[in-house]
């Protein structure tokens, strides 16, 4: 009985991994106005996807500590089909949250967003893992 239960748990775990959303993982942001960038961990948060800043880097590429580590950068994000996602993206360098459009293509993620009719190209993020 114990062996059957362990097999069932393993099968469920494998099936869950097989259905992971393609956006899940760690993404390196494009550089901000100061040349800094970060790593964003994207994972499910309820029925949507969210992304949290897990590492920060300065303009020389050296890892630095940041008060923003642990902050939600991507929120309320849902797949729309064809690799497109819509939600919200927080831009720490501008201290603004944008209505976002994310376009996934392999290991690249084109990021853009608008707030009050002002749109911004967030660059292309690259999958780290």
Side by side, the strands of the main sheet go: 1-2-3-5-6-7-8-9
- Separate helix tally: 1
Q: Structural class from helices and strands?
A: mainly beta
Mean pLDDT: 87
Concise summary:
This protein is mainly beta and about 130 residues long. About 15% of the residues lie in helices and about 55% in strands.
Tell me what you see in this structure.
With 129 residues, the protein is mostly beta strands. It contains one helix and nine strands, in the order αβββββββββ. It has one helix at 2-18; strands at 25-28, 37-45, 48-57, 63-64, 72-81, 84-91, 96-105, 108-115, 118-127. It has an eight-stranded antiparallel beta barrel with strand order 1-2-3-5-6-7-8-9. A hairpin with a 2-residue loop joins strand 2 (37-45) and strand 3. The chain is globular.
What's the layout of helices and strands?
Elements: H1 2-18, E1 25-28, E2 37-45, E3 48-57, E4 63-64, E5 72-81, E6 84-91, E7 96-105, E8 108-115, E9 118-127
Antiparallel strand pairs: 1-2, 1-9, 2-3, 3-4, 3-5, 5-6, 6-7, 7-8, 8-9
Question: Which characteristics define this entry?
Answer:
129 residues, mainly beta, 8-stranded antiparallel barrel, globular
């Amino acid at each position: 009985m114990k062996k059957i239960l362990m097999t069932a748990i393993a099968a469920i775990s494998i099936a869950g991994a097989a259905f992971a959303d393609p956006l899940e993982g760690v993404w390196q942001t494009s550089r901000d106005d100061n040349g800094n960038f970060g790593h964003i961990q994207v994972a499910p948060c309820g029925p949507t996807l969210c992304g949290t800043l897990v590492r920060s880097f300065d303009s020389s590429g050296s890892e630095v500590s940041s008060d923003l580590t642990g902050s939600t950068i991507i929120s309320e994000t849902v797949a729309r089909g064809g690799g497109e996602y819509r939600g919200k993206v927080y831009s720490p360098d501008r201290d603004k949250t944008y209505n976002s459009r994310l376009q996934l293509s392999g290991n690249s993620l084109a990021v853009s967003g608008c707030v009050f009719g002002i749109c911004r190209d967030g660059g292309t993020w690259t999958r780290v893992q």
